[in-house]
Amino acid sequence: MEVLRVEELAAVHLELAGENDSGRSATTLYSRPGARLRQTLIALDAGQTLGEHQSPGDASLMCPQGDVLLRTGDTEVELRAGDLVAVPPQRHDVHARAASVLLLSVALH
């Protein structure tokens, strides 16, 4: 079994996000052929937004570090360090109010 040091990966990707013109960096933590789960670590520099998109399946978003807004339609929810939310099936975006790290878990059908 491989143990991933999420805190260390988060630091690396926050640094990369700060260096990238896009203000973001991501890496897949778990996925394999035929898997029904994918987990991705996403780092966003302060002020960056992951543009509106549709979730590919049931998903949750955990915020190990930072402060983000998950927005869909007229609804928004703030996530801070330690918060977890089910991602709505509607189109949504994510805005980082501070440099932030997210763990996206998606059930693939």
UniProtKB/TrEMBL annotation:
Highest taxon of source: Bacteria
SUPFAM superfamilies: RmlC-like cupins
Matching PANTHER family: SLR8022 PROTEIN
Protein name per UniProt: LuxR family transcriptional regulator
Biological source species: Kribbella speibonae
